[in-house]
Amino acid sequence: MPTSPAPLRSGDQVAIVCTARKASAEELRAAVQVLESWGLRVVLGESVNAEYHQFGGPDELRSRDFQQMLDRPDIRAILVARGGYGTPRIIDQIDFSRFANNPKWIAGFSDITTLNCHLLRLGHESIHGVMPLLFHQPGGEAALESLRRALFGESVAYTVQPHPLNRPGTAEGELMGGNLSLLQTLTGTPSDCPTAGRILFLEDVEEYLYSIDRMMVHLDRSGKLRDLAGLVVGHFSAPQDNTVPFGFTPEEIIDTYARKYAFPVCYGFPIGHEPTNMALICGRRARLTVDEGEARLEYIMPTAAGL
């Protein structure tokens, strides 16, 4: 079972870094205020305000900054400022040996799926959730509160309205997943995670419909779907299409491959590149219940605080 970092407490110090795209201190000012309102002290990493083309500084700077925050015992959580692209470029330069002896929460989504999967592969929980650059997006209040609850070790369960493609059933297993394109990118790398017996969750943004199909073919052919305990499908925002339409929605594409197997499936789950991006704890054991009335996802193992 993956290890769970200790819940945050008022007075703890947390860091914001850029492992992918650049972000300025001015863009993060509102997020710092939110974190301070939670009773936390905030340290901005060297990569904040750094700039190298699209990135928050060159690879060497971003990896050094993240490494320093990993190794500092006074930093109790690391929030990645934003996604974009860049984390796969530096993940192999990061040494998690000190982190293993003093684990802390690491949170983000999208490109940060790289860290979520890598940490799970190493046996540690992490948080898939809203990032500081998006803390004040309209309609994101519930997502932000879910992140706070995850960081502070408070209990949470999610209920989702029925969807016509849902497959009823009950599944138990560790949560894993994130951005579909990143999951494919990580296949066959040291950050790749086994899916057997786990509840996989998926989301993506601005992908071509044929590309979503191609990635689902890859997941299926590589055996990633075969032994799942369950599947949770989140937002597939702003899908793109060709001049000749592909002919299926993202949900219909996923259903083409999911229906080959018997595990329960929940569509329309509030995760991904929308304001309702609820926090999920990667590696935490959960129960997915899907019936005709609703779908429900809840954690079933105690947290580090004994909840």
UniProtKB/TrEMBL annotation:
InterPro entries: Carboxypeptidase_A_C_sf (IPR027461), Class_I_gatase-like (IPR029062), LdcA_N (IPR027478), Peptidase_S66_N (IPR040449), Peptidase_S66C (IPR040921), S66_fam (IPR003507). It comes from the Bacteria. Signal peptide: none annotated. Pfam families: Peptidase_S66, Peptidase_S66C. Keywords: Carboxypeptidase, Hydrolase, Protease, Serine protease. Residues 14-129 form the LD-carboxypeptidase N-terminal domain. Residues 172-288 form the LD-carboxypeptidase C-terminal domain. Belongs to the peptidase S66 family. This is LD-carboxypeptidase. It comes from Hymenobacter koreensis.
